[in-house]
User: Fold this.
Amino acid sequence: MRPVDIIHKKRNGEVNTKEEIEFMINGYVNGQIPDYQISAWLMAIYFKGMTKEERYYLTMVMRDSGDVIDLSGIKGIKIDKHSTGGVGDKTTLAVGPLVASAGLKVSKLSGRGLGHTGGTIDKLESIPGFKTAISKDEFFKIANEVGMVVAGQTGNIAPADKKIYALRDVTATVDEISLISASIMSKKLAVGSDGIVLDVKTGSGAFMKNVEDAVELAKSMVEIAELNNRKIVALVTNMDQPLGDNIGNSLEVLEAIETLKGKGPEDFTELCIELGANMLDLSGLYSYEEARKVLKENIDNGKALEIMKKWIKAQGGDDRVVDEPENILPISDKIMEFKAEKDGFISHIDTEKVGIASMVLGAGRKKKEDEIDFSVGIKVLKKLGSKVKKGDVIAKLYVSDKSNVEEAMRLLKESYEISENPPGKMKMKLIYEKIIGGK
Ligand code: URA
Assistant:
């Protein structure tokens, strides 16, 4: 086989075989095929796409380039949840304990944040003492005893994806559905859960800016899981505005805790219940309707919060954070206000820019090596459809001496549009579509 012939085939819109896809990926990982040939192949895929089978073979060869984790040491039903990433997306922190309180086992490997989206691992590390680098034995012990555990993803899960993603990033081939689905699913299928619930974000703060593309991406990932005989459900959800009110590490932990106390923002609470109900439905423990009821009860009766407390303690964190989050979490007391410049309705939010505003305050990383400040971030007080008067506070900025407040204010000003009329209902819908595997 020669790489040039495989590139040629794809360039002409033909289908690559399983052997050809394996040859390209393995050759790249081994250093036998150079960057320029893989780049050309990726660009050909970008323009010509891949069939369902090609996507599957690509996923599997990337998955098998590293460790495949067997979770059979964890007793019970294990359902994984994955979000394609957004601004203010702290769902894992609340959904995990919530579904664990209803009998599921949640054992997650998560990543750090980069760019405008935050990462679960960074958020958790804002809790004093919380350890995300835990041994395999600890991981299994906590999952079995508490029902909920989150560890940092090791370097050896789908290393081929890591190498290829770095190349895609500099060759303008990130935003292609086959490549995104194979990248995400290679990591998801590397962990032996019984089922997966995907939260595919769409809107101004997501990879997929429009609903149609997000639905296509969701369907593509569902098909890959089906070919792997894995149970899966994908929800396509709104990222046309930040999820919940808080953005930034400690602020997001605070909001997750408040949500499990029944005092969370409406959109975030509803998304947690919806994702959780789908996880329980997929597990067979409850029907979807029963699950919604149980999850709401477990917020009201404190069971979900109790699991969160046990989980934080088990991973070395200061569990007083659950009772007195404001005293334990590092949250800056230096607050600046971003105000409305005229009367009207909030009609559009460039959510990606709001995420970048939080990043320039210090809550996120521009480059992998950047350090983050857990104490800074943004609290959004006015969301889509809110009526505002000139001078009303739209958002509070929690800042430090190192924050680039001027840049953050400029970004927020560019992000928010105030018009005479509120936006259409579609823009404020929380869940657009549900795609169920095996149907
Ligand atoms: N997230 C991933 O892990 N991979 C992509 O290609 C895009 C988002």
Q: What stands out?
A: Residues 84, 165, 174, 179-180, 183-184 surround uracil (CB under 6 Å). The chain has 18 helices and 13 strands. Residues 266-283 form the longest helix (18 residues). The CA atoms of residues 86 and 178 lie 20 Å apart.
